[in-house]
Design brief:
It is a single chain. The radius of gyration is 13 Å and the shape is elongated. It is mainly alpha-helical. The chain has one domain. It is built from three helices and no strands. Helices cover 78% and strands 0% of the residues. InterPro entries: YjiS-like.
Length: 50
């Protein structure tokens, strides 16, 4: 049970870090990556397997 909680927390941390990093980018930089600002959460969830 504790392992599940720890894994969930680590996934959440990775999700937040990814969201924060992508939100720091300009719209132009996001477009260069093929990401729209509205897709940041979806991309972060995929990245963190969250």
């Amino acid at each position: 049970m504790a392992n599940g909680i720890i894994a969930s927390y680590k996934g959440w941390v990775k999700f937040r870090q990814t969201c924060n990093e992508l939100n720091r980018l300009t719209n132009r930089e996001l477009a260069d990556l093929g990401i729209e600002r509205s897709e940041i959460a979806k991309v972060a969830k995929r990245s963190a397997a969250y």
